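HOLO CASE FILE
Compound: flavin-adenine dinucleotide
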Amino acid sequence: MKLRVVVLGAGFGGLELSAILSEALGEELDLVLIDRNDSFYFGFSKLDVMFGKKKPEAVKLAYRNIAKPGVRFVQETITAIDPEAKRVTTNGGTYEGDILVVALGADYAPGDTPGLVEGGYEFYSMAGAVRLREVLPTFTKGNAIVGVTSTPFKCPPAPSEAALLLHDYLTERGVRQNCKISLVMPFGIPIPPSPETSQALLAAFAERGIKYVADRLVRALDPARRVAILDNGDEMPYALFLGIPKHRVPEVVAESGMTVNGWVPVNPKTLETRYPGVYAIGDVTSVGTPKAGVFSEGAAKIVAAEILEDYMGGERPPAYAGQGLCYVEFGAGRVGRVDVDFLSGPKPTGSFVEPSAELVRDKEEFGSSRRRRWFGG
Ligand SMILES: Cc1cc2nc3c(=O)[nH]c(=O)nc-3n(C[C@H](O)[C@H](O)[C@H](O)COP(=O)(O)OP(=O)(O)OC[C@H]3O[C@@H](n4cnc5c(N)ncnc54)[C@H](O)[C@@H]3O)c2cc1C
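Model generated. Tokens follow.
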């Protein structure tokens, strides 16, 4: 009997899980990988797209190229999840598995921040990044704000990266002296688990005249007056607002009854949900790690090991430790790295590797190694 696995979502977590199970089981595996999209994008490629460094087609990884024994990709939209029956309904059919893995990520709700849709932009979706490629060349003077509207949000370093890359972009266009850049963040320092990385970012902001507004969220925009309203009532005038929109689970997950306080709770050591045979990994969960691809991938490795242990026997896999490394764009063609550990100690810790050209190459290899592993035969 083949092992039947249904993987919901072909993002960082779903792709990693499918690749590991395929490698271990080959044709003994009957895995259906479902996603509504026809291709995958790395989150960081949205920064390349918005600043015009890469075209959207150039960063697209088409799912039709997945060539993995035992894995069948279907481009369908999931419309219902029954975790008790381990059954999934899509616009194309119904799928049942011995194991269900929910890896549906986080969706955005820009409409939940008053004024954001009418008066601002977001760069967290590919559509938002594509739109900004057209808008940014028209921005020549005034206040630019990069602002977080709610927590949790994906990739905590991304707003800092956007502010630094915006500085480079405006400098290259010769208009930086006519513009102010502010970054509104809900944390006292940019990356709380790593004071060292945060100090390096704060120093980079200071060098470039970027204002860091700590411990604040943007609650609303008033497009008529062109002001951003913060959660303490302060107002900041803006000519360009780049928002990090509110995140939430995809609607189908909320409707499945699997969420508690908005996200899917899991056993932090095993990633099991409260439903037998149903796991959840990545951004869709409230496991306690940041919403970032490296953590979704790390969770997928643990779930794959557990599935294989149950199927083939062998040693119990280690508990999920919530560790990951994140490359951080510092601007001026330099990339730094932060290595973080969220779950193995009493509190999250992080260490910093100084920005360098070598890390630029490492970040490229991070992307291409995953492309080979997830899509190659
Ligand atoms: C600007 C930016 C920069 C980032 N930089 C980094 C970085 O440098 N490093 C890093 O590790 N992370 C980074 N991230 C975060 C990273 O992209 C996400 O955390 C990661 O993709 C989460 O993986 P996941 O598998 O949990 O979900 P996702 O990768 O989001 O995958 C979920 C999948 O589910 C699919 N889906 C959702 N609903 C349905 C449905 N109803 N039917 C069918 N399919 C559905 C989606 O189409 C999607 O493909 C960045 C994010 C952004 C926005």
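CASE NOTES: The pocket of flavin-adenine dinucleotide is lined by residues 9-14, 34-37, 43-44, 46-47, 77-78, 103-105, 124, 154-155, 158, 250, 252, 282-283, 291-294, 296, 326-327 (CB under 6 Å). The chain has a mean pLDDT of 96.
CLOSED: yes
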